[in-house]
């Protein structure tokens, strides 16, 4: 099959021919149609993720995707051949990623798609949507709270805005001015331009006592004094970036005002629940998939660089095996793996 491969951490990603994987017990083999491009993908290639080592090389990146089940491993009873899925890969467990014609995924990390949801849109859901929902749950999101989302126009921030609004919260968010229209369409009451506005002054006007919950999807010191934006007894939740030498807020300042500081990352135990809820909410049109731009798999290196540099509006999605021989499923069937 064709796949994007890193031969060494810190090297360039290249398109290569590699062996098609076989699903193990509890896994499905998916013919991939589309994959999301996430910050974790360039970090994987750079060797920054603690669960990846030289033993994972050559490495196929990709933590999420959408496609069709073409084979099942032993013991899988929740999926069937031909099912259309959004899914998370087994990359954190040492299996290959999704940036390839075919990928294996744990059956418990996959959700069937309604016919109304195309593969490209579905691929924009898993990593970003799950991260946002998990972080907001860890932060104790509740109705009528005032919530600030740092990085509201990116993939995770776009989902977080909509999830918070659906929960009945009031939302402020930071982004460049040219993304404020998008954020307002998603329900943001207070749109803040981090490149020119005084963030603290804007929040002091909108939430004089401070916000109940601050979700930081950017990190890397992008908020100079997050503690000053939060009310006494509030919550600060930061999406785990896994970047070395990242400047982190001083926990003593949070503790002095009874602010709980949380470093959030996806939970395997709640992964299926989060994905199922999000897919259902999109199908019911309660939440919309954020804007996404599609690129062919062959342009993966350019997509990685754009995400690494930041400032992507919504999501980038790579299309895999469209309208060519790579769309043909492998000859193997479920009987080969039972």
Q: Please indicate the count of domains.
A: 2
> Can you count the beta strands?
15
| Shape summary | globular
How much β-strand is present in the residues?
Answer: 25-35%
Overall pLDDT level: 90
Order of helices and strands: EEEHEEEEHHEHEHEHEEHEHEHE
What distinguishing features does this structure have?
2 domains; 338 residues; Quinone Oxidoreductase, Chain A, domain 1; alpha/beta; Rossmann fold; globular; six-stranded parallel beta sheet; seven-stranded mixed beta sheet
Describe the structure.
This protein is of the alpha/beta class. It has 2 domains: 2-125 and 289-336, Medium-chain alcohol dehydrogenases, catalytic domain (Quinone Oxidoreductase, Chain A, domain 1, Alpha-Beta Complex); 128-264, Rossmann fold, CATH 3.40.50. The protein is 24% helix and 26% strand. The chain is built from 9 helices and 15 strands. The chain has helices spanning 39-46, 119-123, 126-138, 155-166, 180-185, 199-206, 251-256, 271-283, 300-309; strands spanning 2-6, 13-17, 27-37, 64-72, 84-88, 102-106, 110-112, 146-150, 170-175, 190-193, 211-216, 230-239, 260-264, 292-296, 315-319. Strands 3, 4, 5, 6, 7, 14 and 15 form a 7-stranded mixed β-sheet that branches. It has a 6-stranded parallel β-sheet with strand order 10-9-8-11-12-13, with helices on both faces. The chain has a two-stranded antiparallel sheet with strand order 1-2. A hairpin with a 6-residue loop joins strand 1 (2-6) and strand 2. Helix 1 crosses helix 9 and helix 3 (126-138) packs across helix 8 (271-283). It is globular, with a radius of gyration of 20 Å.
């Amino acid at each position: 099959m064709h796949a994007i491969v890193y031969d060494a951490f810190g090297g360039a990603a290249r398109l290569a021919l590699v062996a098609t994987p076989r699903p193990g017990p509890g896994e499905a083999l998916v013919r991939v149609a589309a994959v999301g491009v996430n910050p974790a993908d360039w970090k994987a290639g750079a060797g920054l993720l603690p669960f990846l080592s030289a033993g994972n090389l050559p490495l196929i990146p990709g933590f999420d995707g959408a496609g069709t089940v073409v084979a099942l491993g032993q013991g899988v009873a929740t999926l069937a051949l031909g099912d259309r899925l959004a899914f998370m890969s087994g990359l954190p467990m040492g299996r290959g990623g999704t940036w390839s014609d075919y990928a294996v995924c744990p059956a418990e990390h996959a959700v069937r798609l309604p016919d109304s949801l195309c593969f490209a849109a579905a691929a924009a859901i898993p990593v970003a949507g799950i991260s946002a929902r998990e972080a907001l749950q860890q932060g104790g999101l509740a109705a009528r709270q005032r919530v600030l989302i740092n990085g509201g126009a990116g993939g995770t921030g776009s989902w977080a805005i909509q999830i918070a609004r659906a929960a009945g919260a009031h939302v402020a968010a930071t982004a460049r001015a040219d993304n404020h229209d998008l954020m307002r369409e998603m329900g943001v009451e207070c749109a803040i331009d981090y490149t020119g506005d005084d963030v603290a002054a804007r929040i002091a006007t909108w939430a004089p006592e401070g916000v109940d919950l601050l979700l930081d999807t950017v990190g890397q010191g992008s908020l100079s004094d997050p503690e000053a934006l939060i009310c006494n007894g509030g919550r600060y939740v930061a999406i785990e970036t896994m970047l070395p030498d990242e400047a982190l807020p001083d926990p003593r300042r949070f503790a002095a005002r009874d602010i709980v500081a949380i470093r959030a990352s996806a939970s395997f135990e709640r992964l299926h629940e989060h994905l199922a809820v999000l897919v259902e909410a999109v199908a019911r049109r309660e939440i919309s998939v954020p804007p996404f731009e599609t690129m062919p798999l062959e342009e993966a290196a350019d997509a990685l660089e754009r995400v690494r540099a930041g400032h992507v509006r919504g999501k980038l999605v790579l299309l895999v095996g469209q309208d060519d021989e790579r769309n043909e499923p492998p000859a193997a069937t479920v009987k080969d793996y039972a």
